[in-house]
Amino acid sequence: DMRSWMPENLMMKADKILDMCAAPGGKSLVLYSQISSDTELLCNEPSQPRRESLTKVIQNYIARDKREKIW
Q: Going by C-beta distance under 8 Å and a sequence separation of 6 or more, which residues neighbour residue 63?
């Protein structure tokens, strides 16, 4: 789906990126791997059970000292 990806050059210029409906977390991990160190990644998930799953994925795959840019 063309709406599910963003060209890398746009992501590199962003101050913040919002991942709507972010669970289970795969897209958030891909976005995190592509953004600059100055960019914040905002992961939104309205469903509580899916949000808990997203949190576990982020905790398991992104180092603790790198998570300060993920909300």
A: none
Encoded tokens for 71: 């909300």
In angstroms, the CA 4 to CA 63 distance is 25
Q: What's the helix, strand, coil split of the chain in %, to 5? A: 55, 15, 35
Is the whole-model pTM more than 0.85?
no
C-beta of residue 6 within 8 angstroms of C-beta of residue 34: no
27-66 pLDDT tens trace: 888 888 887 778 888 899 999 999 999 999 989 988 888 7
